[in-house]
From TrEMBL, chain A:
It is found in: Cell membrane. Residues 115-311 form the ABC transmembrane type-1 domain. This is Sugar ABC transporter permease. InterPro entries: MetI-like, MetI-like_sf. PANTHER family: BLR7065 PROTEIN, SPERMIDINE_PUTRESCINE TRANSPORT SYSTEM PERMEASE PROTEIN. Gene3D superfamilies: MetI-like. CDD domains: TM_PBP2 (cd06261). SUPFAM superfamilies: MalF N-terminal region-like (SSF160964), MetI-like (SSF161098). It is a multi-pass membrane protein. Keywords: Cell membrane, Membrane, Transmembrane, Transmembrane helix, Transport.
From TrEMBL, chain B:
The keyword Transmembrane applies. CDD domains: TM_PBP2 (cd06261). Belongs to the binding-protein-dependent transport system permease family. Residues 1-22 are annotated as: Disordered. Keywords: Cell membrane, Membrane, Transmembrane, Transmembrane helix, Transport. Residues 88-280 form the ABC transmembrane type-1 domain. It is found in: Cell membrane. This is Carbohydrate ABC transporter permease. PROSITE patterns: ABC_TM1. The keyword Transmembrane applies. It is a multi-pass membrane protein.
Length: 317, 296
């Protein structure tokens, strides 16, 4: 797959002369139009669906974020300008959700998945085959499982009567009710458990592309493991690091099911990240307008990350 | 699983002939790497062990333990049409329908993008790539409000259309990249024989990129099968719910949580996607993957 060359390298049937079997088409306006139509036509089902069900909701989102639309019994909503946004930035619970989303993203995506994924990929370069296969299999299984199932497994793991406390008891370490005392940390670890495989696979692929002569030369020159990692490996895979960080962050920003299953955002709102806050405002408090304003903010942050990601890839598209 | 998904190591000690100290250092390092990996594997395997052991344990609770005996009562209890078969069938209808629609639309759309040169290709592809990484979760509230207005709420087709639209950007992108790998010379013969674009796509290009189509299909299906938020928001009637939503009934509605049954259901519900992943793991493993595919 060479996306780099693709858009220019593929000049398809347009370069083919008129087929001899058919009467040669005169390059009339009519023929040109037909040909252009034939090219656009295959795109239309996808474009229609994308416009109706993706672009449509986004536009609608941008509209109702400025209204006071409610869930029930309202004849028609009215335009309220920036009121929803002003309300949000004065709302303690919103600020709490922003803070928790930040913690969740930094802990689970930047520190957790990314670092652990890189460590696993680096170790796999050196480990023996059976161990590599076993570890890869386990980590990838955690990733392939449906989100809700992963949520239940980690719920059982972190519960007061769960596995983690059983192990801590066994080691004579103090146990605690993780989902109650440190819910945001518990869901962050859950997201690490579920998401690390992606980073591992991306980094494994990147590390495999580093020519072994380079690291071997450095090794013969006496550069230790950490120095080689810092001065040779990391600079060589920086593009993958950027890509991976972006994709991880975007995925983490939109985690809903995992947290919903484990804590419902609670206790209180101690693990209520922005998606859960948005859901609660829109459906428990019936304020669709307000919930959508929060959604729009989330969408804007996501778009920013997405643009950065596009920029990172720009040379390759 | 997925021995295949783990990339091979780069050439090891075979190439040059490093001194004995280097070789022994390598051995120590391999051992250290093995220990490190096994430690992570041990931590990761605990939740998985819980689900496997609890599903056959007559007295399952929340911690990993040796079962009090081996029983298949948990599976017996859940394998009813109410608890398992109807939700799985619902999942199959929603995800199967949406996957089919996604793959057909993506293949059609990828063809002109891959085969014809046009000024619009680049902006279109950039938009697609941009949409790939938007947080879909964020637009679910407006989608709900919109679906209420256009009477698509609580309908299977509503979910299928939305699944398709949210999966299409990535599917088009992947499909186009796979299609670029099919040399256009192979098509030229068909063109001179008077075949049109559709015939050439269906009879020549798609068969040649079978593995690519398989990857797009499996990938779309697996993502939708595991998706909780979309059906949770867009469906209301309990007997329309797919397995990803109905699994929550093990809490709440049925009184005491039967953890053994929850574990058994989790296994039944997860098995299809794990098998499907194994099916494409080799292909993804080679020049992995999402990141790799996105990088092109």
């Amino acid at each position: 797959m060479t996306a780099a060359a693709a858009p220019h390298a593929t000049d398809g049937p347009e370069t083919v002369k008129a087929p001899p079997g058919r009467p040669a088409q005169t390059p009339s306006k009519h023929g040109k139009l037909l040909r252009a139509l034939a090219r656009v036509l295959p795109l239309s089902p996808a474009v229609v669906l994308l416009l109706l069900f993706l672009a449509g909701p986004i536009a609608y989102c941008a509209y109702i974020a400025f209204t006071d639309l409610q869930l029930t019994g309202q004849a028609h909503s009215s335009f309220v300008g920036l009121a929803n946004f002003r309300k949000a930035f004065r709302d303690e619970e919103f600020l709490n959700a922003v803070w928790l989303t930040l913690v969740f993203t930094v802990v689970s995506s930047l520190l957790g998945q990314n670092t652990l994924g890189l460590a696993l990929a680096a170790l796999m370069q050196r480990a023996s085959k059976p161990v590599r296969t076993l570890t890869g299999g386990i980590v990838i299984t955690a990733w392939v499982l449906p989100e809700v199932v992963a949520g239940f497994l980690l719920y059982a793991f972190f519960r007061k009567e769960g596995t983690l406390n059983a192990i801590l008891d066994w080691l004579h370490l103090p146990s605690q009710n993780w989902l109650f005392t440190l819910p945001i940390l518990a869901v962050s670890f859950a997201n690490v458990w579920r998401g690390t495989a992606f980073s591992m696979l991306v980094y494994s692929a990147a590390l495999n592309e580093i020519p072994s002569e380079i690291t071997e030369a450095a090794e013969v020159d006496g550069a230790g493991g950490w120095r080689r990692m810092w001065h040779i490996t990391l600079p060589m895979i920086r593009r993958s690091i950027g890509t991976n960080l972006m994709l991880n962050t975007l995925q983490t920003l939109s985690v809903f099911g995992l947290i919903w299953v484990m804590t419902r955002g609670g206790p209180g709102n101690k693990s209520q990240t922005l998606p859960l806050f948005m859901y609660e405002q829109a459906f428990q408090n019936s304020m669709i307008g307000y919930g959508t304003a929060v959604a729009l903010l989330l969408l804007l942050v996501g778009s920013l990350f997405s643009l950065v990601y596009l920029r990172l890839l720009r040379t390759e598209v | 699983m997925a021995a295949t998904a783990v990339p091979r190591p780069t050439a090891t000690a075979t190439a040059t002939s490093p001194g004995p100290t280097l070789a022994s250092r390598r051995r120590t390092r391999r051992l250290a790497a093995d220990i490190g990996l096994l430690a992570v594997a041990a931590a990761f395997v605990l939740p998985l062990a819980w689900v496997l052991l609890s599903s056959v344990d007559p007295h399952a609770d929340l911690r990993v333990k040796v079962p009090d005996g081996l029983t298949f009562d948990n599976f017996d209890a859940i394998l009813t049409s109410d608890i398992t078969f109807t939700p799985l069938l619902n999942s199959l209808i929603l995800c199967g329908g949406a996957t089919l629609l996604t793959v057909v639309c993506a293949a059609l759309a990828a063809y002109p993008l891959s085969r014809f040169r046009s000024r619009l290709n680049r902006p279109f592809l950039l938009t697609i790539l941009f949409a790939t990484s938007l947080p879909i979760t964020a637009i679910m509230v407006p989608v709900y409000a919109l679906f209420v207005r256009v009477n698509l709420i609580d309908t299977a087709q509503g979910v299928i259309f939305f699944f398709t639209a949210s999966q299409l950007p990535f599917a088009i992108w992947l499909m186009k990249n796979f299609m670029d790998g099919v040399p256009k010379e192979l098509e030229e013969a068909a063109w001179t024989d008077g075949a049109n674009s559709l015939q050439s796509l269906v009879r020549i290009v798609l068969p040649l990129m079978g593995p690519g189509v398989a990857v797009v299909t499996v990938f779309s299906f697996v993502l939708m099968w595991g998706n909780f938020f979309v059906p949770f928001m867009l469906l209301l009637t309990p007997d329309q719910m797919p397995a990803s939503v109905s699994i929550n009934e093990f809490f709440g509605n049925r009184g005491m949580v039967a953890y053994g049954q929850l574990a058994a259901f989790s296994i039944v519900y997860s098995t299809p996607v794990i098998l499907l992943y194994l099916l494409i793991a080799r292909r993804l493993g080679g020049g992995f993957a999402l990141g790799g595919a996105v990088k092109g």
